[in-house]
Amino acid sequence: MSAPAMTTGASRQVVLGRHEELKIRQRMVIEVEGVGIGVYFIGEEVRAYLNICPHMGGPVCQGKIMPRTLEQVADSGKSLGLGFSKDQMHIVCPWHGFEFDMLTGRHPIDKSVGLTPIPVEVSNGEVVLTVGETRP
Amino acid sequence: MNENSIPNFREIGEITGSTDSRDVLAHATRQAAKNFDDYLIVDVDAHVSEDHFWSEIIDLIDNDVLRQIGQHQVKGFGGSNALLNISPGLSLQSVGGRIGHQGRREPVQDDGVHRFISTARRSMDAMGLDYQVVFPSAMLLLGMHPQDEIEVALAKAFNRWMIERILPIDTRMKGLLYLPFNTPEACEELVAQYGATEGIIGFTVCSTRNKPVHHDCYMRLYSMIQELGKPLAFHSGYHWGDPSFAQLNRFLSMHALSFTHYNQIHVTNWIINAMPERFPKLNMLWVESGLAWIPFLMQRLDHEVMMRPSEAPGLKRLPSDYMREMYYTSQPLERGNMKLLEATMEAMNAETQLLYSSDWPHWDWDSPATIGSIPFLSEQAKRNILGLNAARLFNLDTTRRKPLAEDVLANRPKTAS
Ligand code: FES
């Protein structure tokens, strides 16, 4: 597994819009000069990742968003069955189903595998992405 | 705001089960444009998703009674699984809908071309494939059907559908004749009838069945196929009803083991009964079991044959020597440990024996980059595995058949990505 390289030339900023308006959406996927980026809104937090999957380069940000699946285990060791997490959401790659935690961008089992983060911040109420000049 | 600001961006949509294949696969097209647009690429195992066209196949059944039952089921509960033995409730491939292209239904304009060809062309162009060989996916379990006569009837109908309706439309599509292996005489009839047909480049047996491949009832069939000079493929599959696999509670566990299990059984019987010595010119191809099982089985069989040669008296060489002369398809390629993969490819002579396969549109499909991005393979090895080995085995013309990747990217609908 190798994360695709995002070379850093002179960085530029992209203003996506007012955070108040965007945060009611869970996700937006954009293309800036040929580079795909997924932007995720989790409460007041914002994250952005390159739309290229570390598995085989699939359009990872364009898949489903699903809660993390958990297996509850009782103190006795018995399984209490499967359930969805109430607070952890996963980005699911539509090509083969790799899942990544929306906040950390890491795979839930092999944490060495993760999405490529793109700098994003809320500045003066606006969501601002910083992108490099060159393509991944 | 920074004066370098880029105010313009474009929003792109979610990829779903109804997204155009060219958009789903746009990243694969970019990989092709960048790295292997001038390679000959042959995909030896893609899937018809014939469930979309199942009623067309049912209508071609030659037995009046079975056709009537099938047509009745198509209109009712059986639907696109009419007469089949698959269990819809156990079809967990899409992981609860997370992987939308498994069972996809994308819109296709009615331009007079069969809908199957229209969708297949999209995926071929998007992945940069010159040829694609289609396997019937819903029929992969037919070897476990309790009614052998239904396997025979569906085999005849499917082969007719493929030969009469599909293959003549586009010479980039190739077919392997489905053999209803539970009924050897019917296999012989089909080989005699269609074996030399243009577009039929070999024969396939769905491996999921409990029939020993060395049984004497198959010797005439193997002779006929060897005579024709076309390969015989065994396409593996799963079967959760098998008592061993019924212990496994998750689809992934059953899937991981059963797809290698059935081909291991058949390769073991094939070698220990010295079939390569009996049919030395018959090219064998083992499909959709990945590669990790190959060095495992080579080592296990070599180890035991050295100690018990009296139980494999027909062998003149070690099992691994015979296995190195067989052919294998690549998907689903285990790439998690490159050192192990490198040792595996060396052990099996992948440079000459391995054939790329996509398995598109199934959930665990592999794009050509799965081979093209392997760091230890030489350029020639990549070219061989992606297409030249298949061209040699199937006797395919190596002239470029696909459009330029850049043209595919320019002409895709861009409804998503
Ligand atoms: S490319 Fe994302 S899961 Fe394979």
UniProtKB/TrEMBL annotation, chain A:
Q: Which GO terms describe its molecular function?
A: 2 iron, 2 sulfur cluster binding; metal ion binding
Q: Does the keyword Lipid metabolism apply?
A: no
| Protein keywords | 2Fe-2S, Iron, Iron-sulfur, Metal-binding
Residues of the Rieske domain: 14-129
Cross-referenced SUPFAM superfamilies: ISP domain
Q: What InterPro entries does UniProt report for this protein, alphabetically?
A: Rieske_2Fe-2S (IPR017941), Rieske_2Fe-2S_sf (IPR036922)
Annotated signal sequence is: none
Q: Which Pfam families match?
A: Rieske
Instruction: Supply the name of the protein.
Output: Rieske 2Fe-2S domain-containing protein
Q: Which organism is it from?
A: Aminobacter anthyllidis
Taxonomic placement = Bacteria, Pseudomonadati, Pseudomonadota, Alphaproteobacteria, Hyphomicrobiales
TrEMBL record, chain B:
Gene Ontology molecular function, alphabetical: carboxy-lyase activity; hydrolase activity
Q: Which UniProt keywords apply?
A: Lyase
Cellular component, GO annotation: cytoplasm
Give GO terms for biological process. Answer: secondary metabolic process
Gene3D superfamilies registered for this protein in UniProt: Metal-dependent hydrolases
Q: Which InterPro entries match?
A: ACMSD (IPR032465), Amidohydro-rel (IPR006680), Metal_Hydrolase (IPR032466)
Every copy of the Amidohydrolase-related domain together lies at 122-396
Q: Which Pfam families did the record assign?
A: Amidohydro_2 (PF04909)
Output this protein's name.
Amidohydrolase family protein
Organism expressing this protein natively? Aminobacter anthyllidis
